[in-house]
């Protein structure tokens, strides 16, 4: 595993982000609404990410985004399979066409909203015709980073007794995240629309990893506290960690993590310290019960 800035593999990351959106929008079109958009996230799978089983018609299907051998693969409950490879020279429009044909080939065509969500480009997938490079080694390296994040998130959240989600890929912002909820209602009252009102309606904290973007070039672990913190955010004494007031989140760059003697332990400490400090500041109810160790 190596550190690769977003600008180092921008085209490849953009392609994966767009493909994950196609998969997530497929779930959105087929599944009933759940709190905090839980029904549309993508789950870690062997070699990449999966929609999980999507009921459709008289049976259903699954779609996988595979990063070890870059491709998108689908399989129907009846056994039909189809796939297409990820490679250089293709545009988002090309991927969108191949994705649609793939679902048709397994007998499960789905009409999705072709407008990207929370991406820097707002043109529909079919209108994005600029060819993209594709770096298979960078895609595999990203998958290895996600494996570290997934294992760390699983260990960190395992003993939490309250409502929780993840680890899951949130395809809007393209981060691998787990969310812990206090159980206290907290309707979203800021600027935004329907997406924010559904996603943010309970007091919670998001713990995750994202590969960077146009505004922050470094891949990093993060903690986002809701209600959002500002200048009053408590300090955490974790080497390299800082509070990004503009983004309203705590950040720990992957570069600092990989330089540590025990990278996983550093991320666990980062998550733990932010959780303890922020939950105290926001007075999480039943905190002692939510974090009481499980019986052995």
Condensed summary:
This protein is α+β, with helices and mostly antiparallel strands. 31% of the residues lie in helices and 24% in strands.
| Rg measurement, Å | 19 Å
What is the number of beta strands? Answer: 12
* SS element count, helices: 7
The helix-and-strand class reads alpha+beta
Instruction: Give the averaged pLDDT, no decimals.
Output: 96
CA distance, first residue to last residue: 34 Å
Shape call: globular
Helix content: 25-40%
Strand/helix succession:
HEEEEEEHHEEHEEEEHHH
**Unreliable segments of 5+ consecutive residues:** none
Largest sheet: 6 strands, antiparallel
SSE diagram, text form:
Blueprint: H1 10-30, E1 43-45, E2 48-50, E3 54-56, E4 59-66, E5 71-76, E6 81-85, H2 92-105, H3 136-157, E7 164-170, E8 175-185, H4 194-199, E9 202-210, E10 220-226, E11 242-244, E12 249-253, H5 254-258, H6 263-281, H7 287-290
Antiparallel strand pairs: 1-2, 2-4, 3-4, 4-5, 5-6, 7-8, 8-9, 9-10, 10-12, 11-12
Helix pairs in contact: 1-2, 3-6
InterPro entries: DUF5996
Pfam families: DUF5996
Protein name: DUF5996 family protein
Notes on the protein architecture:
The structure is a single chain. By secondary structure, this protein is of the alpha+beta class. It has two domains: 6-127; 147-290, no CATH class. The protein is 31% helix and 24% strand. It contains seven helices and twelve strands. The protein has helices spanning 10-30, 92-105, 136-157, 194-199, 254-258, 263-281, 287-290, and strands at residues 43-45, 48-50, 54-56, 59-66, 71-76, 81-85, 164-170, 175-185, 202-210, 220-226, 242-244, 249-253. The strands form two sheets. Strands 1, 2, 3, 4, 5 and 6 form a six-stranded antiparallel beta sheet that branches. The longest helix has 22 residues, at 136-157. It starts with 9 loop residues before the first helix and ends in a 6-residue tail after the last helix. The mean pLDDT is 96.
